[in-house]
Amino acid sequence: MKLSALNQIKGKVVDVKKGVTTAHVRIDLGHGIVVTSSITNEAVDLLNLSPGDEVTTLINESNIIIGK
Amino acid sequence: MKLSALNQIKGKVVDVKKGVTTAHVRIDLGHGIVVTSSITNEAVDLLNLSPGDEVTTLINESNIIIGK
Amino acid sequence: MKLSALNQIKGKVVDVKKGVTTAHVRIDLGHGIVVTSSITNEAVDLLNLSPGDEVTTLINESNIIIGK
Amino acid sequence: MKLSALNQIKGKVVDVKKGVTTAHVRIDLGHGIVVTSSITNEAVDLLNLSPGDEVTTLINESNIIIGK
Amino acid sequence: MKLSALNQIKGKVVDVKKGVTTAHVRIDLGHGIVVTSSITNEAVDLLNLSPGDEVTTLINESNIIIGK
Amino acid sequence: MKLSALNQIKGKVVDVKKGVTTAHVRIDLGHGIVVTSSITNEAVDLLNLSPGDEVTTLINESNIIIGK
Fold first, then answer.
1. Which terms does the UniProt entry file under GO BP (chains A, B, C, D, E, F) (predicted)?
2. Least Cα separation, residue C68 to chain D (angstroms)
3. pLDDT of residue F44
4. Which residues of chain B have pLDDT under 70?
């Protein structure tokens, strides 16, 4: 399935921290770039996410702010 | 000023395309990763964005979707 | 690829209107429910979207506001 | 009050799960479509949300991703 | 209708600029604070927005970034 | 660093409530306007946020919904 969110960057899960409802997943995009994604615990379970997993990060164009 | 959007990735502007109100800015994050940001024309003018500019992309944690 | 945006609803494209940079795509989810998605023109081209296409709408949990 | 978020779909609350700060509310839109909304606990209290409530889900156009 | 987006600030429309699909609406919140909202042209028409209108701005909690 | 999110409003932190992963920060913008921002606990720690802090709230144009 192709997605309209064109920003798609591959990475590897380095850490998954579950709250009561919300989880934080840290993803190493390589080259020293590590990002954090805030998703639901259900999503973590559905994707069966754990450290070492190869994943793709998807970001909508309107959600990238630019600083200069 | 530090920002609560912790995902901050440096890159270089490769293209700026203005619509009537909305502009698309393509940014090379290096390592073959190019993203597109959709911002207002006013923001392009305020930041005086043009190809070659060193910029930082900022992404809120709740705006990164994970695919596996 | 499974996605962490758990809200996924199937529908059919009824209309695609391109601006200079941003396009509006109207999608019939059935049962009288029609939604509008605002995406980039590049995404319309990449997905080769046109009326009649079977698609899936994806919505992040933090992007659904509730009214009562 | 009319809202600029044009995507408005009626549904019924089926479940409310509160975390320490963030709550997940599952809403049945009918026809087998159930979505999850992630809102603050304060919002749950303000709207006095509980299973069985008739509600409206509101989604901004830029927050609907399309997959094909 | 009460909304789960708890951030609701009243203001007055000062300017409406329509693109081909996307419109920018500038809103004076008083006290020298003017914000810009990017909505669809359809929303402008539906709400029949024009300068001088009393409106309410609604912002989801996850969409407010903090700088310090 | 200038940011493409043009909506920037100064305020003072009045309350910080941490969940297991997500924190709610209430910010007084003056003139009786108090908003709530939902950010990660890591962001609270990085910015070292506590009541009384002078901060700036940043809101992307596409994240302001208008009601009339």
1. molybdate ion transport
2. 5
3. 98
4. none
The answer to whether the Cβ–Cβ distance between A46 and C2 falls below 8 Å is yes
Q: In DSSP terms, which residues pair with C16 in a beta bridge?
A: C25
User: Average per-residue pLDDT in chain A?
Assistant: 96
Query: Are the beta carbons of F38 and D40 separated by less than 8 Å?
Result: yes
Size of interface D-F (CB pairs under 8 A): 38
All residue ranges of chain F with pLDDT < 50 are none
Quote the pLDDT of residue C52. Answer: 98
State mean pLDDT over D14-23. Answer: 95
Whether A17 has its CB under 8 Å from any CB of chain F: the answer is: yes
Is F8-58 in CATH node 2.60.40.10?
A: no
CB contact under 8 A, D2 and F62: no
Instruction: Give the percent of chain E with pLDDT over 90.
Output: 99
Chain C CB within 8 Å of residue B17 CB: yes
Pick the CATH number of B7-59 from 1.20.1070.10, 2.40.50.100, 3.40.50.2000, 3.30.300.20: 2.40.50.100
What radius of gyration, in Å, describes the C-alpha atoms of chain D? 13
Phi-psi region of B30 (alpha: psi -120 to 50; beta: other; left: phi over 0): left
> Which CATH architecture best describes the domain E8-59?
Beta Barrel (2.40)
C7 touches chain B (CB under 8 A): no
